[in-house]
Amino acid sequence: MRVFHSSDYCATDVAFDTTRKADAIAVSLVADPIPGVEVVAPTPATIDELLAVHSRPYVRAVLEGRPHDLAGSNGLGWDTGLARAVLASTGGVRDAALWALQHRTIAGSLSSGLHHARHEGGRGYCTVNGLVVGAKAARTAGARRVLILDLDAHCGGGTASLIDGVEGIEQIDVSVNSFDRYDDTDNARLFLAGSDDYLQVVRRALESIRDPHEIDLVLYNAGMDPCAGAGGPAGIDAFTMLHRERMVFSWSLHHQLPVAWVLAGGYTISISMEQLVGLHRVTIDHAAGAVLSQQRSDDADADDTDTADEAATAIDHPTTPDSHEETIHMDQQHDDHDDRTDTEAVPPATPERGTYSVRSEPPEKRQKPRFSQWSVLFDECRADPGEWRKAAVPLSKSTAMQFASDLRNAHKRAKTKARLKGLLPGERWDAQWGEVDGQYFIWLCFLGRIDEAA
């Protein structure tokens, strides 16, 4: 997955998370790489691209610093590095959009979408609306329909004003803070959520999108500021954000949609920069996982070679551990395109929550599993359709990932893989892999039989 970044993203002297965290995230990707991620430098945006979205007096003010009030209308002020930062970060959004569109894949930029910026000036710490610049560039490149999916904590009123009446660009906006609130238009719809219903509202927003298969590009403003401590209300935690990213990329995979993501909000209000970086890495991790999942799905029919068979020796219900950290990697489920409705394409509930962090390397030594126990696990799952169960013995990370993918796609295969011999014809399963105390496991969920869903 191509990720765009330049040190010029942080060229401004303003010490603010929006202008600083890109470099910290880029450093983390070198120190702790995410598989499949390639960081490349963007081409700076052109003046004409800025003028396609913002007024000439405002663009001139941003570049030259005069008049001072207009140049600093973003709320952060103006300095000599602002123009360089704006051109670089906006170019990153545009390059991610065009790369995703042209290669029908997922790409991203470590810059922010800056969704409060308007035609005539900046607002809410936003200078240039990179989301609209990227959307218009995609339209020029041939996209007929571009969706801006804005999950920043605040409303994207600047974007809504800029795309009002613009053909081929629309916005779905889920917010937990009413700042920059706007009335729905033909191009933009706003969903306000609270901590008690955040994921349900995100799900409802995704389900509300008309004819998603007709979308040529999704521009995803992946704010982490809905999370408590990073700008959001109490009750929305890191697990909630993990589940949200799983929802978004599962939905995009189901409809085979190219996605260009950007960072958006997320602040060190009561968390450290290291913790903030970890939150934003959740987006990158899930996006990269979605790319790998799509590649595995594309290769599934051509290459049916089994990986080393491993399985669990016991089962239990997934429970929240009290003494360890746990990361659930929502491995972009439902990447198969079949007879399910759009509503069913949004994943079901996940295992119970715990304390979550991002890890990278599994322990070297793994316990050898016994295959006879798979039939027991399958039977337990069938007894409680829709409920998640966890295999108790750790697997290698690669096997856990492959096993989850194989199980989700088993109903499409004419030949059943050796480790799935306990499955019955016509069954549909969901699966995900996760990390508990540095060890990797899988969770299973029986969804029913195809003939029952028909």
Helix content: 25-40%
What fold name goes in the CATH topology slot of the largest domain? Answer: Arginase, Chain A
Counted up, domains total 2
Number of helices: 14
Region (Disordered): 312-371
Biased composition (Basic and acidic residues): 322-343
Domain Histone deacetylase: 25-271
Pfam families: Hist_deacetyl
List the helices and strands and how they pair.
Elements: E1 2-4, H1 17-31, E2 38-40, H2 47-51, H3 56-64, H4 68-71, H5 82-103, E3 106-109, H6 130-140, E4 146-150, H7 157-163, E5 169-175, E6 188-192, H8 198-207, E7 217-221, H9 238-254, E8 259-262, H10 273-300, E9 315-316, E10 326-329, H11 342-345, H12 373-383, E11 388-391, H13 397-408, E12 427-436, E13 439-449, H14 450-453
Parallel strand pairs: 1-2, 1-3, 3-8, 4-5, 4-7, 5-6, 7-8
Antiparallel strand pairs: 9-11, 10-12, 11-13, 12-13
Helix pairs in contact: 1-10, 5-6, 8-9, 9-10
Features:
single chain, Arginase, Chain A, eight-stranded parallel beta sheet, 14 helices, 13 strands, elongated, His_deacetylse_dom, Ureohydrolase_dom_sf, histone deacetylase activity
Provide an overview of this structure:
By secondary structure, the chain is α/β, with parallel strands linked by helices. It folds into two domains: 2-297, Histone deacetylase domain (Arginase, Chain A, 3-Layer(aba) Sandwich); 304-453, no CATH class. Helices cover 35% and strands 15% of the residues. The protein has 14 helices and 13 strands. An eight-stranded parallel beta sheet has the order 2-1-3-8-7-4-5-6, with helices on both faces. A five-stranded antiparallel beta sheet has the order 9-11-13-12-10, sandwiched between helices. Strand 4, helix 7 and strand 5 (169-175) form a beta-alpha-beta unit. It starts with a strand and ends with a helix. The model is unreliable at 304-372 (pLDDT under 50). Residues 25-271 form the Histone deacetylase domain. Residues 312-371 are annotated as: Disordered. GO terms for molecular function: histone deacetylase activity. Pfam families: Hist_deacetyl (PF00850).
